[in-house]
Sequence to fold (311 residues):
Amino acid sequence: MNATGGPRIPLAAVALSLVLPGLGEVYAGQPGAAAGTFVGYHVIGALGLVLIFAPLRGLVADLPFVAILVAWVLVVVRAARAANRAPLSYVLQPYNRWYWYVGAMLAMVVWQLALYGALTTWVVQAFRIPSTAMAPTILSGDYVFVSRFGVDRVRERNDLVVISVPGSPGVLVLKRVVGLPGDTVSMSNGVLTRNGVVVAEPFAQLIDSSGAVSEPLHQGRPWHLSHLVPTSRATSRRTYEPNVRTWGPLVIPNDSLFVLGDNRDNSYDSRFWGAVGVHQVRGRPLVVYLSIGPDGGGFLSIRWNRIGRRF
Fold:
């Protein structure tokens, strides 16, 4: 004879389903509905993931986040409804045992870890931007989804890329490609020239926050010297003293990219550690999914106008 339990508590059902979508319905004696919730949650979540890669603009750019929100609302509503519909004198089923719940949660943890590992290896990663190096394009406190697709594709000038820093493979940074293999790049008083043509860069800014823009680039000078193009007999390796705003001209080696931050006076980039190999590209930014202002004041510090911004 099956034991009889008390009425199913909606709050308990919701809490269980927030841990494992559908588990609240199992608790309420509806395993079939639980399977539907589990599948529906992952289908809507997958749709949201696909929409992250879609070239959406304007208000529709928020559709991926709406899809994810809808998935969680579905989970909560179905769990609460199942608990409310359960009989007051609920007959406990064989699966209404604590060890079944624990086992299901552990299985979910394993599944989520495997899914997370697969997604972050081959599909998409989430990054928090900690610095102002890419301002005003990407701000400190922006949370960005980065695509892992096509990391080996041919890059174009002005592409935004996530790269591993030379000499520090575990350190990932987001920069803009300003030079491709074979390009000759230089800068004079903050104005970039590529292959002899001045480049218009409306996304770049020059804000000398450190007062060090005129200091020599001692760290980058050895790499500069090995790729320097003498422009006249007066130019020599001995007299060449680059700084943040004036350097070059430099020839970018094969299979390499020259990258800069948009905040030119406050960016650690190829001026310091040279061009990066194309194999060091780890992804490209897609969209801002959250943005927190510098005050960090909780809900009120969220920069809503940046959520959904695409690159």
Notes: The first strand starts at residue 4 and ends at 5. The mean pLDDT is 88.
